[in-house]
Design brief:
single chain, about 450 residues, alpha/beta, Rossmann fold, Arc Repressor Mutant, subunit A, Trna Endonuclease, Chain: A, domain 1, 3 domains, five-stranded parallel sheet, 20 helices, 14 strands
């Protein structure tokens, strides 16, 4: 595993460097737990220097005292730490007057400070609006509570939107970067790994690629003291006021109840409230509503990797895990893992083709389907009435099998598409070729193709 250097964040680091060149500035860096926010800002501080403070879910006074001590340490004097202040903007003004006006200050996990002491947000707004613009300071606020960042810090209600120079929302790493965390694995094994943990660096850093993927699943997810078992609860408790209700919604989706009416039926939640719960989950990136192309009605599915792994693989065997019957739990999880890998493979192929055809007017992607007949990957150029389709299978095939599969795919696409649309290209994406030494035609997509570039 490779966790000693920053991976796949060149663009985000470039934003911070640009902000440094155009000081003063206020930057908000945020994203879900484990996505690499702290690693990003620490890399920036290694290059440019500055003050780093990790806020606590504690009292306002406690955080102020600890921050004052860090500022005093940076300045090399006792003044800031000794003077008793009760407001954040007063402390930061003192820091500037004492020599910190041309520096970088990172307030990491600031959302925990806001959660425990909401008044600090008003005090931060006072400083950002009335003091920061007249300095050479770069102030970076980092937060893991995505809902709080978007509803409070970036809403414009407390801190004027015009004062937020940059908003950096870190997303999970793309699949191609998993090779740096698990270089001993094959490309196919890394697809399995991505199905379990997504592109979340914290989870990928826990993987031991000297062991098979299934061993890592057992060690990290299913064992009674597995480090990732608690992540589901932490995610839901951090972001949501009534996590038990959202837990029920996610559990229903994992069991196949993907429409609001069915979710209400199996959970007992008031049908008029289900859509609101789904909107919140979608806004946090936990679920996604998928509407087939050229259709109006859609279904919800879990897209956050850890929530998906927990609700699909762990929840059904909780009792076995609780009784430490991990071998039996693993047996079930391995069977379900193949379904999870297939869904992940479809997503990865869709993303790969979107990038490949981005410059040709293909901006819409999804599934094509009608009455049980479907195509799991499709891209549409509505302006030119053209479509690219792909059949994604997580299995090995011979070239002759794939050629037949591709012919059938083209026929199926013509049946499902509106008459005015034409198929520009058809791909088949599979786990591997049975004929290992065969030169691969360009219309075949393998996992290794997704790791290029």
């Amino acid at each position: 595993m490779q966790c000693t250097r920053l991976i796949g964040r060149e663009a985000e680091l470039g934003v911070l460097e640009e902000a440094w060149s155009n000081r003063p500035g206020f930057i908000v860096v945020y994203g879900r737990r484990g996505v690499g926010k702290t690693r990003l800002v620490r890399e920036f501080l290694l290059r440019y220097g500055g003050v780093y403070y990790l806020a606590q879910l504690s009292s306002h006074e406690y955080n102020l005292r600890r921050l004052a001590a860090r500022l005093a340490e940076y300045l090399g004097e006792e003044l800031v730490a000794m003077v008793r202040v009760t407001k954040l903007h007063e402390l930061l003004r003192m820091f500037i007057r004492s020599g910190g006006e041309d520096s970088v200050l990172v307030l990491d996990e600031f959302t925990y400070w806001v959660k425990s002491s909401p008044r600090v947000l008003r005090e931060l707004g006072e400083f950002v609006d009335k003091v920061l613009p007249y300095t050479r300071m770069l102030l970076i606020v980092v937060g893991s509570l995505v809902g709080l960042v978007e509803s409070k810090i970036l809403s414009g209600n407390t801190i004027p939107s015009s004062r937020v120079r940059y908003r950096v929302k870190l997303k999970p790493l793309k699949f191609k970067y998993t090779k740096y965390f698990a270089p001993r694995y094959t490309s196919s094994e890394r697809v399995q790994l991505y199905a379990l943990f997504g592109g979340i660096p914290y989870y990928l850093c826990l993987v031991d690629d000297r062991r098979p993927v299934v061993d890592n699943m057992r060690r990290l997810v299913l064992d009674p003291y597995a480090p990732i078992r608690v992540e589901k609860d932490l995610l839901l408790r951090d972001e949501l006021r009534d996590p038990h209700t959202y837990n029920a919604v996610l559990s229903a989706i994992a069991k196949g109840y993907s429409r609001p009416s069915k979710i209400a039926e199996v959970t007992g939640i008031d049908p008029s409230h289900v859509s609101r719960y789904l909107r919140v989950l979608e806004s946090l990136g936990f679920v996604k509503k998928e509407v087939p192309l050229f259709k109006k009605k859609g279904r919800y599915r879990i897209v956050d990797p850890i929530l998906r792994t927990w609700f699909y693989l762990v929840e059904p065997v909780q009792e076995l895990v609780g009784l430490e019957l991990v071998d039996q739990a693993l047996e079930y999880a391995v069977r379900r893992l193949e379904d999870l890998v297939l869904v992940t493979w479809e997503d990865l192929v869709r993303e790969y083709l979107l990038e490949k055809y981005a410059g040709k007017g293909y901006v819409v992607s999804g599934k094509l389907g009608c009455r049980g007949v479907g195509i799991n990957v499709a891209l549409v150029n509505h302006a030119e009435k053209r479509v690219v389709v792909a059949e994604a299978k997580w299995s090995e095939h011979s070239l002759s099998e794939l050629e037949e599969m591709r012919r059938a795919l083209k026929v199926k696409a013509r049946r499902l598409l509106p008459s005015e649309y034409v198929v520009e290209e058809a791909y088949v994406a599979v786990k591997d070729l049975k004929d290992k030494d065969l030169e691969k035609p360009p219309w075949i997509i393998l996992p290794r193709d997704l790791e290029q570039g």
